[in-house]
Specification:
The protein is α+β, with helices and mostly antiparallel strands and 203 residues long. The chain contains four helices and ten strands, in the order αββαββαβββαβββ. Helix content is 23%, strand content 30%. A hairpin with a 2-residue loop joins strand 1 and strand 2.
């Protein structure tokens, strides 16, 4: 009888454990001319940024855009220019979520995806980058112009080999400045492929 009771307790604990597991974040796949990259987004670390990014994905904004800036040993950047190197019009900029990043313990490490921006900490719109190195200098340290860093909102969960291949392409001076791939690297399509895509901003 005791064995049966113990087995029941174990099964109940396993069931409760399964039910209480943290749901996977929204997952987005980039189908690029060099292969597929799958991302898992992190609404806990950057709720407004995730909502913003998913909005662009759902609208088809990223389809046909370039990885237009590539620096080996640093990062690959995309999401702003079409194949003719014409900058796409974006929605209004979003607030920097560096403090939320710090609370969640996320950083600009290898495989992390973060928002690109201008010098204004709150100027991120659609462009993003994927880290191919641990870039500690890009992390939030304080709520000052120099300390805000670059908001991390997810990570690569499949296709890091593709990211690394892109990071090693030959680059030169192009229509949008330096570090432009000589052979265009295009995001053919961006698609939500799993997880909870109903991320909402923090109240």
């Amino acid at each position: 009888m005791k064995r049966l009771m113990w087995a029941g307790v174990v099964l109940l604990a396993m069931a409760l454990g399964t039910g209480s597991a943290v749901a996977a974040g929204p997952q987005v796949e980039f189908d690029t001319t060099m292969g597929k990259i799958k991302l898992e987004l992190n609404p806990q670390a950057a709720p407004k940024t995730v909502e913003n990014f998913l909005g662009y994905v759902k609208s088809g904004f990223y389809d046909g855009t370039l990885f237009h800036r590539v620096i080996s040993g640093f990062m690959i950047q995309g999401g702003g220019f079409d194949e003719q190197f014409k900058e796409k019009p974006t929605n209004a900029p979003i607030p920097n979520e560096g403090p939320e990043n710090q609370k969640a313990g996320v950083k600009n490490v290898i495989g992390a995806i973060a928002m690109a921006r201008r010098p204004d900490p709150n100027s991120a719109a659609a462009q993003f980058f994927i880290n191919v190195a641990d870039n500690k200098a890009l992390d939030y340290t304080s709520s000052t112009p120099m300390g805000y860093g670059y908001t991390v909102f997810g990570k690569v969960i499949e296709g890091m080999d593709v990211v690394n291949k892109i990071a090693k392409v030959e680059t030169g001076i192009g229509r949008v400045g330096g570090d432009v791939p000589k052979t265009p690297v295009v995001i053919r399509k961006a698609t939500i492929v799993g997880g909870d895509s109903k991320a909402t901003p923090a109240k």
